[in-house]
Amino acid sequence: MSARLAMPRYDWWLLVLASLVATLGLLLTLTAESSAPSADLIGLPDGAVYGYDGGSREYDATANTFASVRSADRDTKSSLAPATQASAVFIVSLAELDAPRAPLRLSVSETWGNPNTLARHFRDHGADFAARNADEYANMASDFFQRSQLNRLPTRIDADGVIRVYDPATNTFGAFNPSGTTRTFFTPKRGIDYWCDQPGTSPWGP
Amino acid sequence: MMGGHMCPVCGFPNLDDPPRSPSGGGSYEICPSCGFEFGVSDDDLGFTYDEWRERWIVHGMRWDSSDIEPPPDGWDPRKQLKAIEE
């Protein structure tokens, strides 16, 4: 999918039109390739940065693709006003680029913190989630952690870096190491009261 | 099981992690000997160490992980309990 853009850099209306065309081109491309956000837009200056709610992508003219702007560069580039840039800067709404995607499916050895403990945790908590075996239970825990951070579920990080997450809608609790590997995963009998007693502070702010 | 941390419930000497972190959170490790999960058996189910120990003793001090792994060679729950008393 290509979108041809010919745009005077300082004409606001053409800028808006070009943004809409670029948006359509990107969305159509992402529909076909949802796993690797990229776009094949023609006529854009190298280094053009697309800002959108949730992040930004930089156009690579050589590869004719977009790539995430490195965090070190993001602030500088996103602070540049569109009309003052030699390379056009679009402000478009592309929330779909960072829309929640399917959780990464990692091996259990990559997601469970201490392999010596998995069988016991599955024995004691697997029924909470109707998990059929230890691997499925561990995968559920990993999926929960990934989705919890995408959806900004209640999270607390203690002084040791242990990450505790709670989903009040499903009464699901998980504790994770700083690396993201799972310590435990279960449904607390005390529900929200158990969560309220957990140590740590929220990374999402008060 | 080479952690070397003692279970404060049954005296099992080889927990991988301290039962409680310096910040106060449970380790969530389940003792293979008595089955106590630190941060869950206490903070959620409401058992004290003494209550769980009593329950474990009443039920015969069985190796809690028998369905998962056999106890260490020479495992003696009574010797473990003495470590608690000391």
Verbal overview:
- The complex is a heterodimer of chains A (206) and B (86).
- With 206 residues, chain A is α+β, with helices and mostly antiparallel strands.
- Chain A has six helices and ten strands, in the order E-H-E-E-E-E-H-E-H-H-H-E-E-E-E-H.
- Chain A has helices at residues 12-32, 71-78, 108-111, 118-125, 134-150, 192-196; strands at residues 2-4, 40-42, 49-52, 55-60, 65-68, 90-91, 155-157, 163-167, 172-176, 182-186.
- Chain A has a four-stranded mixed β-sheet.
- In chain A, helix 1 (12-32) links the parallel strand 1 (2-4) and strand 2.
- Chain B starts with 48 loop residues before the first helix and ends with a helix.
- The relative contact order of chain B is 0.20.
- The A-B interface holds A 114, 116-117, 119-121, 123-124, 158-160, 162, 164, 175, 183-184, 186, 188-190, 194, 197-200 and B 1, 16, 21-25, 27-30, 32, 35, 37, 39-40, 43-45, 65, 67-69.
